[in-house]
Amino acid sequence: MAMGLHASSRGRGRSRRRAPMAEINVTPFVDVMLVLLIIFMVTAPLLASGVPVELPESRANSLDQDPDQITISVDRAGFIYLNDVQVEDGGLAIALDSVAASGGGTPPDVVLRADTALDYGRVMAVMGELNRAGFNTISLVTSGSSEAP
Q1: Which CATH number is 101's domain given?
Q2: Does the CA dihedral 108-114-120-123 come out positive or negative?
């Protein structure tokens, strides 16, 4: 490949000039874009829910996600999270009332994620608060399983 050196036609003793290179090296750009693509592919599934919850297993079919739905998570220690924001102890009713008031007409669907180590009564208490606040469409999230119970 030629480097783009051109001899001057004016004479032998005069200096030679280099013509500017008009090529752009895109290899570093492609390398950076591939690394960013891999980073986004790895982190995208983690963005779905930020609260670490060990979900129970079930053979139920998956449901479609609705952008208007809210997510309630209860972790192993029993702390409650509303859309990945921790709710104060005893503050679930107030938080749900504010969500219901800001929602306008019909309340949004609720997705409940609860850890397998939780007491059944703790999960039912959260569901009771949801029902009291007017959230009657509650989906329980589980992890997939291939074995029948």
Answers
A1: 3.30.420.270
A2: negative
